[in-house]
Design goal:
- It is built from 8 helices and 8 strands, in the order βαβαββαααβαβαβαβ.
- With 257 residues, the chain is α/β, with parallel strands linked by helices.
- Strands 1, 2, 3, 4, 5, 6, 7 and 8 form an 8-stranded mixed beta sheet that branches.
- A hairpin with a 2-residue loop joins β3 and β4.
- α1 runs parallel beside α2.
- The protein starts with a strand and ends in an 8-residue tail after the last strand.
- 35% of the residues are buried.
Amino acid sequence: MGYKVDYHIHTYYSDGTMKPTDVVRRYSDMEYDMIAITDHDGVDGVREASIAGEALRIQVIPGIEFGTDCSFEEKKLELHILGYHIDVDNKELLERLEDIRAKRADRNERLLALINERGYELSYDDLITRPNQNYVGKPNFARALKSKGYEIPDMWELFDSVEKEKIDTLEAIELIKKAGGIAVLAHPMQIKNLGEKSSDEFWNKLDELIRMLKKEGLKGIECYHPSADEEDSLKLVTIAGKYHLHITEGSDFHSEE
């Protein structure tokens, strides 16, 4: 019998709703053997999760998920890169995360101003749901607007109209490598601008993209994810085998809602 694993989990240290201890207890109760905490652009929840993992006898892998920009065939793609087995005390990694956090704060200020310009009353305090919260992302805006009873038909389009400056994909892979970790391409089926999803064009371009990233240090592909059906997953496994890449599985868990 194989291990029961989930290598893609978010806590309230990024855009999840549960504290790391509760996340670990949830997976322990479901008899998982191994999980990875992969909060967006931060590692603040890893240590707490690891301590809980030791107590509950479930292995917790220190991880992260970077939102990145990748230049590919004269286009800019948004790719998410997962990092596993990273040193969460790596100086270069922590310094870069502080810079990313500052850029996100700037973007959030601009998005908050736009929302208020549209006539929806929202303050920064409405986005804060716990003490010492230092991550605010698009899901925080969505939950705050919903809690105030606002229904915005084009809400996610509105959010996406205010861009956040992201780090380059190759830099993210290098940061993970320098922190002693391995870099994995998250949810490939969600990548836009590769052609119609699951079309021949999509698969051909995805193959080219993965070949390029492999040369730059990519070590794996998230082949099993809610965005991939069974046929998609089999094709992703085939590509992973072609380029001798690790195959990972993740639920992209954020909350029990």
